[in-house]
Amino acid sequence: MSKIAVLKLRNRLKREFQIIDTIDVLKRIAVSEFQFLDKQRVEASQFLRVLESFFGFYHAWKLKDSAFFESACDVPGVVVMSSDEGFQGAVNAQILERAMQHVDNDPKTRLIVVGRRGAKKLADAGMNVVEFPGIPFPLEYGAVSALKAYLIDQFIKKEIGSITIIYSRCQSFTRQTMAEIKLLPFNVYDLDTRSADDKKNEELLGYVICEPDRRRVVEYTMALWFGRKLYEIYWDSKLSEVASRAIELNERFEDLSRKSKKTQAQYFRANHEVIDAGIREIFASHHFFSKEKGIQYHEG
Regarding beta strands 76-81 and 162-172, do their DSSP bridges make them parallel or antiparallel, or are they unpaired? Predict the structure, then answer.
């Protein structure tokens, strides 16, 4: 093998090492982001659980005619939580496919998409979408304000009759699943906490003071809950995004490391061949010139 070929292999090996080091850094950053977000999510979820524990009173108050509890509109609203980050193609594809199934089942479905990439793909597929910015990092509560205001406004005006969120839920660092949750119209018995206990709440009603009135308290806390629930879903989506990116980067890291070992073996073998060829050429030249000068050369 020629020296040029060896030089090409050496340059290729150098590039592979640089890419592997870059991927390793990105993987470590993703793991650090996950740990940070996971710790913050616990605090956000605790507030939401406390808020939901108050909703048992709503059933006892029998305020079923509130704007948040029912809707006369038959247009479904589907919120699609897509990702603008790299290495998320497979996750985005699953979420967008589920969204398109909703449209196939009911052509009246309104699609609200969080994330530029998801909105573009659905628009390219010929669907009308309302686009909102992707999930930022670091994630603050203000990030959900625009989406919260838009969805509540559309629901109260009866432009849409239900709000369903499709997103990637983070079960653990190594397990993410696609989830679908219906937020509105609200049903207190849909809560995971099952906080509604009619008898207990009826006993406590005499101790509850509502100012200015029950309906306004209900609608204020419902809007607060809706925003906090969106915030929790943003957290889940971001955690899932970061975890899946870290796993994907780790797989790329291991795959490139295996390929790099093959390149190293090729380089060392080619380099040895060039060195051996050089040694043989030197030996042959030395032997030739020794004969020319009449010098007897003995091997060994």
Answer: parallel
